[in-house]
Amino acid sequence: MRVLVRNPNSGDGKRSARAADLARDRGFDVRDSTRAGETYDLAREAAVGGAELVAACGGDGTLNEVVHGVDDADRLDDTELGVVPAGTGNDFADNVGIRGVDHAFEVLESGERRRIDLGSVDLPADPEIDRDDALPPRPFLNSCVGGLTAESSARTKPASKRRLGVLAYVLTTMAHTRGFEGLELEVRVGSERDPTWEGTAAMLLVGNGRRFPGEQRRQANMEDGKLNVVVVEDAPAIDYLARGAADRFLRRGASHLTRVKASSLVVDAARPRQFSLDGELVERRHVEFGCRPRAMRFAVGEAYDTHPEENPPDVS
Fold first, then answer.
1. Which of 100, 162, 202, 259 lies at 20 to 30 Å from 75 by C-alpha?
2. Is residue 313 part of a domain?
3. What is the distance between the alpha carbons of residues 189 and 270, in angstroms, rounded to a whole number?
4. Start-to-end C-alpha separation, the chain
5. For 248-257, b where at least 16 C-beta lie within 10 A, e where not — what string?
6. 142-192: pLDDT as tens digits
7. Cα(232)–Cα(229) distance, integer angstroms
8. Same domain, yes or no, for 134 and 86?
9. 196 and 73, same structural domain?
10. Residue 196 — left, alpha, or beta (φ > 0 → left; ψ -120 to 50 → alpha)?
11. Is 200's pLDDT higher than 50?
């Protein structure tokens, strides 16, 4: 059984509708969500029911929920995964070489399957935000972002995303820049007790499937068991954004950036802040990141690079 879990409200709706037609023509069982979070339930049910392939149709958030559902069903080892890009943001699909709806079905039918990494976030109990219950670990495929872009994404209106696509996030970030207080952080890598970095940051970027804008090649190495970590110091980043130079503030070699590769890290903020897991917002002061090496069997396109060139220092 092959299942397409579809968010019919992703993006402009047109790509999602075409995906449903193509999927049915090819014998997929198309299961549509009707409410927020239902793609998680549908994917979990498909995995428990023995689906050999579960593909997500939507954006990065939909894909995250689908993988989360299969993972919680304890079926990642037995279920192939794929993506049909139909959302506002389709970063992960692009990074695994999927170039559109039609191409996605070509890949699902006959493309290569690779074992690729899965990022994870542990969210311990945090009584500082009136919550004494620990949340279960959450997966992320592409990235987890804390700071300016995470807090701006919460302010980005759905209508703006539909009209402007990913540009909506950039414009909201620019509008929010002058009122941003900065993110007081301590970042510890691996088992180190002393902070690898501490101070005021504009952003914390933790990538599994991607590196970040300002680099010639965005795809990270998704088979090395490492996360790509970038800390963007506060003042220079705010200055670049205020001057409309968002394409330059993450340029390689910039003095206001700290980059490392690590299999795990711990982040403590001075107060609870928002973190965006593939677009899903959570609020925490203490966050623990990990990488699950080659946890997923994923359908990838011809442009997927198994060994992209890497430059950040590698810290275990």
1. 100
2. no
3. 18
4. 40
5. ebbeeebebb
6. 989 888 766 555 555 555 555 544 445 555 555 655 566 788 999 999 888
7. 10
8. no
9. no
10. alpha
11. yes
Instruction: Dig out the tokens for 116 from the structure.
Output: 């690729």
**Is residue 312 one of the residues assigned to a domain?**
no
Q: What is the Cβ-side half-sphere exposure of residue 5, based on CA atoms within 13 angstroms?
A: 32
Asked whether residue 128 falls in the same domain as residue 172, the answer is yes
Question: Among 14, 4, 130, which Cα is nearest to 56's?
Answer: 4
Q: Which residue has the tokens 């023509």?
A: 25
H or E element in which residue 207 lies: strand 197-207
> Which structural domain, as residue segments, surrounds residue 57?
2-110
Count of beta carbons in the 10 Å neighbourhood of residue 103: 18
CATH number, residue 215: 2.60.200.40
Domain count along the chain: 2
Burial state string for 215-239 with b = 16 or more CB within 10 A and e = fewer than 16: beebbbbbebbbbbbbbbbbeebbe
CATH number at 51 reads: 3.40.50.10330
Give residue 123's identity as a one-letter amino acid code. Answer: L
Structure tokens at 131: 């919550």
Q: Are residues 127 and 260 in the same domain?
A: yes
**Are residues 176 and 151 in contact, defined by beta-carbon separation less than 8 angstroms?**
yes
Handedness of CA 210, 57, 66, 60 (dihedral sign): positive
Find out whether 102 and 75 touch, Cβ atoms under 8 Å. Answer: no
Residues 91 and 208 in one domain: no
Q: Is residue 159 part of a domain?
A: yes
Q: Of the candidates 250, 151, 155, 240, which has an alpha carbon nearest to the alpha carbon of residue 210?
A: 250
Highest mean pLDDT among 64-73, 185-194, 235-244: 64-73
Structural domain includes residue 179: yes
pTM: 0.85
Q: What is the pLDDT of residue 257?
A: 83
- What pairs with residue 219 in β-bridges? 210
The pLDDT value given to residue 203: 83
Question: Torsions phi, psi of 132, nearest 5?
Answer: -105, 10
Amino acid identity, position 38: E
Written as six digits, the tokens of 140 are 């992320």
